[in-house]
Design a protein that fits this description.
It is a single chain. The protein folds into two domains: 1-45 and 65-83 and 90-177, no CATH class; 179-244, no CATH class. It has seven helices and six strands, in the order αααββαααββββα. The chain has helices at 20-42, 67-73, 94-108, 136-145, 147-150, 156-174, 215-243; strands spanning 110-114, 120-124, 180-182, 195-198, 204-206, 212-213. A four-stranded antiparallel β-sheet has the order 3-4-5-6. 19% of the residues are buried. The model has no long low-confidence stretch (mean pLDDT 84). The structure holds zinc ion (ZN) (2 copies). One zinc ion is lined by residues 187, 189-190, 192, 194, 206, 208-209, 211. The site of one zinc ion has 9 residues, from loops.
Length: 244
């Protein structure tokens, strides 16, 4: 393999199909999904609002649940059903999606045990067991714990894309987006004050020239450049005060 990330085509560590930035994004998504659950459950019932008189009423009674939320929280198939006319609501629900990936991962995960003769046997796992139960939160934790292994499998990008798609569906319902945090040091490449950290991103990226820095690289760059910038600002301030 060529050590290129299947998602962003940047350099990936040896033996991995995802770079550390894309693996980190998946890690934050698996921690984010459980945080949406209370809001998703609250969103299950449609907001019916006041009754309307007159001719603008509905032809049918409203459904007692919001379909797009039920699609996420309900039971369902691990594989998306064929939808040739495009009239089905969207995709695989959360729980089967997460459990499906856990089963898939466990089927390839080497399990080491001693047989009755004391010989070490290395075999695939029989199945995933989440010690904290079988909830969506438990499967998110399970997958998160095995992410370093998942990143070494050729299907890692499929898992990434499905988690990304399901999180986009969730965020559309809960009206949330990852927060952006502008950084105070200028970009080391283009000098613009355009470096931004985003909640689910490992790298700090420049919005002007798309340079990426790891948190350590940013901290080093900031420690180097900020004292000089502060001294410059003080000098300009003193000159302006003297001229006034
Ligand atoms: Zn990547
Ligand atoms: Zn830049």
């Amino acid at each position: 393999m060529d050590n290129t990330c299947d998602i962003c085509h940047q350099h990936a560590p040896a033996g991995c199909y995802l770079c550390e930035g894309c693996a980190y994004r998946m890690h934050t998504w698996l921690r984010e999904i459980p945080r949406h659950l209370p809001l998703l459950r609250d969103s299950l019932r449609p907001d019916t609002g006041p009754a309307q008189r007159g001719g603008s009423g509905r032809a049918h009674s409203p459904l007692p649940v919001r379909i797009e939320v039920l699609d996420l929280l309900g039971p369902g198939h691990v594989v998306a059903l064929p939808d040739p006319h495009g009239d089905q609501s969207v995709g695989v629900p959360l729980a089967p999606l997460l459990y499906g990936w856990a089963r898939y991962l466990a089927a390839e995960l080497p399990s080491v045990r001693l047989d009755e003769h004391g010989t070490v046997r290395i075999e695939p796992c029989t199945g995933p067991v989440a010690r904290r139960g079988s909830s969506i939160t438990a499967w998110c934790s399970w997958l998160d714990a095995y992410l370093p292994y998942a990143a070494t499998r050729p299907w890692a990008a499929d898992m990434y894309e499905q988690l990304e798609a399901v999180l986009q569906r969730i965020r559309r319902i809960t009206h949330t987006a990852p927060r952006r945090h502008p950084k105070d040091a200028p970009c080391p490449s283009c000098s613009a004050f355009a470096l931004v950290a985003v909640d689910d991103e490992w790298h700090i990226s420049c919005q002007a020239c798309s340079v990426r820095l790891t948190p350590d690289e940013y901290a080093e760059h900031r420690a180097r450049i900020m004292p000089a910038l502060a001294a410059l600002a003080l000098r300009i301030g003193a000159q302006q005060a003297a001229a006034a």
